[in-house]
Write a structure and sequence with these properties.
Strand order of the largest sheet: 3-16-11-4-5-6-17-28
Number of helices: 13
Shape: elongated
Structural class: alpha/beta
Radius of gyration: 24 Å
Number of strands: 28
Length: about 500
Amino acid sequence: MPPPPRSPRARPRPAGRPGPAQTGVRKGRAVRGGGRAGRPGRPRWGMRVATALSVLVLGAGGIGHAVVTSLDSGIGRIDPFKDMKNRPDGGHGMNILLVGTDGRDKITKEERRKYRLGGAPCRCTDTIMLVHISEDRERASVVSLPRDSYAELPSHTDITTGKRHGAHAVKLNAAYSEGGPQLTVRTVETMTGVKIDHYLEVDFTSFMKTVDALGGVEVCTAKPLKDSHTGLELTAGTHELDGGQALQYVRSRYLDGSSDLGRMQRQQRFMAALIKQATSSGVLLNPVKFREVTSAMLGSVRADKGFGTREMLALGEAMRGFGPSSSEFTSVPVNERNLAVQGIGATLTWDPVKSKNLFRALREDRPLTPPAPGGRGGPPAPAPKQQRAAMVEVAPRQIRVQVYNATRQDGLGRRVDGALRGTGFNTTRAPLNHMGPEVARTRVLFDPRWDRSAKSLAAALPGCELRPVPRQGATLRVMAGTDYTSVRPVRAEDVRRGEFGAVTGDQVVCP
């Protein structure tokens, strides 16, 4: 089966190495800041923040002090930790709260119309993510915090009205509306038990300009994406997005029933792709281009006073050799059923056991992804690289397959079964011989209820014939014909694994 069609504006983009977020270090050594210093991290849509950080910080070490110092003056400074008491104990590594706000004041009327950005900004956080940089600076863990999470704000003074509020329930993104960065940090620390060392904030305008300055970012999808609310419309395949299109991609919530959870996964994929573009395009080694990108981004960035030039330079130096597989992404585990709260609406509640384990892992500086076959935490061994992997909607490991040898070739069934199993399919490991006449063209027989799985399997068998068989059941059947030559590697869009459903950066960029 041929690979999915590419967008008319799509064009191939060379593979590269992503980079992390930021850290608080001096002269390449760890510094205490609630915990001990760590290694750079990977952001995501708050990721625009990620953009900001990754691009800004990654290039710092290679560009020089004078350039970074001039850029540092463009960052808006805030104190999100002012007068905070009874904070969590610091763990190992460094924790950064990355916040994307709904600011659109500097967006033109044409951009508002084209990218569906009408209406007044909500003065709230559109995205919240927690980035943990390991103490050894070899891993960045990014945890998305759903903006619709049920939260209980402590007593505070409303920064807009000046009114004193008692403790009350809200959706997490409302913490910023009522109390700005300080209340947001305070609320996140209370909910997670993780001490925040740095705070970074970026808005819509900065995100769009940064993507454009990088020359666009490549994303891929196994199925068409269309959201009437944002105007996003992508065919299945690979696309290169400009700043406005990228904003549509990371904001879309109405593509399917997954709402904000699905959006967070797309944001994470985009962030990994953005870092790949930033590190593979030569931007970080070109002082002129570096200034162009960072200047586009810094106009709307706000950060705590502790994240300055010295930290940028130290982080840039520390990040040498940091690659895509060094980053990992996940979202806070939530309960299946929403909690309806009067005056607020449907909220997401965190799974009390899984979320507790997740934040304990961050405090203890442990990887969120399962160990690789070699023993260290990280992604599984990659598929053979003879061919470019095809992007599919359903993960091969979720698809049960029974192979039949439909030819007179001895051992063909074993070869096909082994090849499918090698690319991840859940085969029976017991191929059978087809009792009918010899088949010339390989066939995939499937129950129409499992049509998405059938398409994933067909992608691994280019040129095969798909045949629906009502009431066949969940197990798909492959009739290996005389035309069989090999199995093409395939990879699912969502390959989340382990207790926390985490993925590494190299698993979510385009194959």
